[in-house]
Amino acid sequence: MARVTVFTLGGTISARGGDAARMTGQEVLAELGAPEDVVLRDFRRVPSSSVTHEDLAALAEEVRKTVADGSGVVVVQGTDTLEETAFLLDLLCTTEQPIAVTGAMRRPDLPGADGPANLAAALAVAADPACRGLGVLVVLADEIHAARHARKTHTTSVATFASPGAGPIGTVVEGEPRILLRPAVPAALCPLRFDPSVRVALVTLSQGDRGELLEAVDDRFQGLVVAAFGAGHAPAWLVDPLADIARRIPVVLASRTGGGTTLSHTYRGPGSEYDLLHHGLIPAGPLDPAKARVLLHTLLSSGAAGPAGYDRPRITAAFAHLNGTGLA
Ligand code: ASP
């Protein structure tokens, strides 16, 4: 079995008693009775809502070095923002080594705590050569999900992680990973960078929206993701404000529905996806708003914007790549 390094960041898996103090990485591994050859990196001890961009940049750097040394990796963190960490690592660590991200929904002191089982499954994935070359994987409830699809879909269920529109790519059965499907393309064709100082706004539209939050998207931000209605729709009166912002910074059009891809030409009236794209917005395709924000952040950190403006074709191609409609 390959060597595995475990990075612990905190989260429910370490929240015995539910107060602010979190268990050490050593204690988290001890709950499982983890094998002694596992290398522990007690990285942070925070709820995942408090993981910062600086934490993520440092984590990605450490994970990159670790996989370059030939180790598989497990990242253990809270489930609330797990999908964003996993997708970011997928974009930053283009490696054949398995990287599994896991956590828990039930505290270690509650009946039916799922942390030990999830950690055991993630360790099995990270050590298994059959899990190489799949990109970063989210492993919970004996399911293996590709990071680009995985989402937390329920506030309390231990089966909260799902891949809407795709499904899990494998399962863990009797302690062994079984891969059923492989992602069609790597998440990124070359490793992207992540600059914590880049700011990307995420604005979710709501019925009757008058655009006050869009007005707040000023020069503090280098990019904007709009979580729009349905397949990429906005009120007709927000088209001009969105087009104005898209002249300054990239504006990515995502869907707030939680599944499916944005469309391009099914509806053509004011505020339709066709209208918005022809006013300069960039389609997120199948990426949900949170993941679209992560991808846009990495592109802006990797030279897709500068004093002369932003590289719209490059950003559009990167999103299209994950839609299976083009190569970045
Ligand atoms: N689910 C939370 C998290 O994502 C729980 C916590 O506060 O630890 O970290």
TrEMBL record:
* A Pfam family: Asparaginase
- Name the protein family: Belongs to the asparaginase 1 family.
Signal peptide span: none
Look up the domain of life of the source: Bacteria
> Which CDD domains does the UniProt entry name for this protein?
L-asparaginase_II
Q: Which PROSITE patterns match?
A: ASN_GLN_ASE_3 (PS51732)
Under PANTHER family, the record lists:
60 KDA LYSOPHOSPHOLIPASE, L-ASPARAGINASE
Q: Which UniProt keywords apply?
A: Hydrolase
Q: Does the keyword Hydrolase apply?
A: yes
The L-asparaginase N-terminal domain extends over 3-180
Name of protein: Asparaginase
